[in-house]
Amino acid sequence: MNSLIDIKEPLILASKSPRRAQLLRQIGLDFRVIAGDMAEKMDNSGEPAALAVALSLAKAQHVADKVAAGLVIGADTIVVLQEKFLGKPADREEAFTMLRYLSGRTHQVYT
Q1: What is the distance, to the nearest Å, from the Cα of residue 71 to the centroid of all Cα atoms in its chain?
Q2: pTM of whole model > 0.70?
Q3: Phi first, then psi: what are they for 60, rounded to 5°?
Q4: What pLDDT is stored for residue 103 in this prediction?
Q5: HSE-up of 13 (CA within 13 Å, CB side)?
Q6: Which member of 60, 64, 68, 101 has the greatest number of CB atoms within 10 A?
């Protein structure tokens, strides 16, 4: 059982994000991480908020299909700059390139 809220089922974070895990720990939740290694499909034609929700649900469902019981939390983040959707960088170099691209520019972040 979690200390903050009364959750009877095991809590599972369907994300490898260290920051998301840190946030859950900060609010006193006990959980385990089971990252769903699934290919993310970026559909740049829709609304970014809806895409973030759809990807979050897909990740949660992917992990939920693998566990017998538990409350699964899925999350995803979409960054948009000038109508261009930016996904997760593949490596450190791509991350630096993305940060340089975003630096000094107004952009939107959807989670």
Answers
A1: 16
A2: yes
A3: -65, -45
A4: 93
A5: 17
A6: 60
Retrieve residue 47's tokens: 């609304």
Please state whether 28 falls in left (phi above 0), alpha (psi between -120 and 50) or beta: left
CB 25, CB 18: distance < 8 Å: no
Architecture of domain 11-110: Alpha-Beta Complex (3.90)
Report the C-alpha gap between 60 and 66 in whole angstroms.
10
Q: What is the pLDDT along the chain (111 residues), one digit of tens a residue?
A: 555 567 778 899 998 889 999 999 998 889 999 987 766 666 677 788 998 999 899 999 999 999 988 899 999 888 999 888 888 888 999 999 999 999 999 999 998
Domain boundaries, the chain: 11-110
Secondary structure of residue 20 in the 3-state scheme: helix
List phi, psi (to 5°) of 47: -80, 135
**Residue 59: Cβ within 10 Å count:** 23
Q: Is 91 a catalytic residue?
A: no
CA distance linking residue 68 with residue 53, whole number of Å: 24
